[in-house]
Amino acid sequence: EEDKLTDWNKLACLLCRRQFPNKEVLIKHQQLSDLHKQNLEIHRKIKQSEQELAYLERREREGKFKGRGNDRREKLQSFDSPERKRIKYSRETDRK
Predict the structure, then answer these.
(1) In 3-state terms, what secondary structure has residue 47?
(2) What share of the chain is helix, strand, coil (3-state, %, to 5)?
(3) CA distance 67 to 59
(4) pTM of the prediction?
(5) CB-based contact 13:20 (threshold 8 Å)
């Protein structure tokens, strides 16, 4: 994941928005720089927050679909309720 935050061709830390004269200095920056460590922590927290938000949105959408399904089931159950069946059955027997 940290490689995505580094441009090895330009020798730049994309996270800290800094360019370095050579690969060794860039690696040293990644390992020792307090600025890099702080930015990395912020980056991780943002990623985690985005994942949590996506999870909550997904749960909310699923909940809405479940809610609609429950509404539909309640309506269908009222059509198949014993009282309704009795009425339907008595109408059919009256016709014969």
Answers:
(1) helix
(2) 75, 5, 15
(3) 12
(4) 0.55
(5) yes
